[in-house]
Q: What sequence folds into this?
């Protein structure tokens, strides 16, 4: 098998690709999915700007950007007039991770409990550890909502965190009835519900699932990000919540001291959002991700017929189960064969899912995803 090409190669957080390894462990877009048109619009915006983007920004974020994001979200979701997101319900952030950390800082204290799905986004668990929170997990699959009310009553968590649409790592999406049960249970408990919705707009067909942060839901926060739909290097995102909760964020020491988050990049990104270029880019991104998901899924099913492979309707990830095998033990062999993934226990607060692994189809074009499946099959016992 040939070494991976450099075009479209995933990069590590340090920015350096690992030579010879197809890194399906990374939730990064490949270089060909990043819009060069954004750079041109940023240059034009920079040349036309006055010095205001160099100043401290408004705590909630620039009003024009919030209005543009509200209009973008309404258009993408085909939202009825009366249910469209209002700018006063939006708060500009430095990405979903920063937003989650800020919410933990303001609404939890060390020793508080946070309720999560199992499996869940592994680096959210790292944020919770940073804040010394006790993580309590719900059972996987359909059983998670069955146990939700009992867990809320027993553990009285301050915060409930989940990825409701095209989830990281499983690719699953809550249906309408599950969303209603979740919202009702959390409202009765008084816990802050944090919906990490960074993949919500990356469905492969049809309108995106509705946000959980609807009007009247006073203790629900939706996290959005330009990282997954535009470019992760921007470090720019938004959250949607009740205006009173947004006002609490504005009063935080961080925002009062430093002003708005990433106002310079926000000012340069604004034209791309406001003028419709983001919607156009997103259409092509969805098509590319849908093709990659289909190619990787088919290649895995062909190369590993005994494995169980998810069939995501959106997002970045495939969840693969290897009956009778340890994904953690097989990882070193996979790396020697030139492919990498994240073992299932990374995503579990209980260390479960030892035979599962997560693969990202975003970092590579279809030909290299087929190659990755072949390398993975070569690394695993027959």
A:
């Amino acid at each position: 098998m040939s070494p991976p090409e450099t075009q479209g190669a995933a990069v590590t957080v340090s920015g350096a690709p690992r030579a010879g390894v197809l890194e399906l462990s990374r939730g990064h877009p490949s270089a060909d999915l990043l819009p060069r048109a954004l750079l041109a619009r940023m240059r034009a915006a920079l040349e036309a700007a006055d010095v205001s983007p160099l100043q401290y920004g408004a705590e909630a974020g620039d009003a024009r950007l919030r209005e543009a994001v509200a209009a973008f979200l309404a258009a993408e979701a085909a939202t009825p007039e009366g249910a469209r997101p209002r700018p006063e319900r939006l708060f500009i952030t430095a990405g979903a991770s920063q937003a989650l950390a800020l919410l933990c800082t303001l609404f939890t204290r060390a020793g508080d409990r946070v309720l999560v799905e199992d499996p869940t986004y592994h680096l959210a668990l790292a944020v919770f550890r940073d804040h010394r929170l006790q993580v309590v997990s719900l059972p996987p699959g359909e059983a998670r909502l069955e146990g939700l009310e009992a867990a809320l009553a027993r553990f009285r968590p301050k915060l409930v965190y989940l990825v409701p649409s095209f989830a990281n790592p499983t690719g699953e999406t809550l249906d309408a009835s599950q969303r209603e049960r979740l919202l009702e249970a959390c409202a009765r408990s008084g816990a802050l519900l944090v919906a990490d919705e960074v993949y919500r707009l990356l469905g492969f067909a049809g309108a995106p699932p509705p946000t959980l942060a609807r009007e009247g839901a006073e203790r629900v926060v939706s996290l959005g990000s330009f990282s997954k739909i535009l470019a992760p290097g921007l470090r720019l995102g938004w959250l949607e919540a009740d205006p009173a909760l947004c006002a609490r964020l504005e009063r935080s020491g961080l925002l009062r001291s430093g002003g708005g988050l990433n106002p310079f990049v926000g000012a340069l990104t604004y034209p791309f959002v406001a003028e419709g270029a983001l919607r156009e880019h997103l259409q092509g991104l969805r098509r590319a991700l849908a093709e990659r998901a289909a190619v990787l899924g088919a290649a895995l099913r062909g190369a590993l017929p005994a494995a169980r492979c998810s069939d995501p309707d959106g997002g970045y990830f495939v969840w693969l189960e290897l009956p009778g095998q340890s994904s953690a033990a097989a990882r070193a062999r996979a790396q020697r064969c030139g492919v990498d993934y994240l073992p299932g226990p990374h995503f579990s607060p209980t260390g479960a899912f030892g035979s599962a692994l997560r693969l990202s189809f975003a970092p590579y074009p279809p030909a290299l995803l087929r190659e990755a499946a072949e390398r993975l099959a070569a690394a695993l016992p027959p």
Observations:
- Residues 1-15 have pLDDT under 50 and may be disordered.
- The CA atoms of residues 49 and 267 lie 9 Å apart.
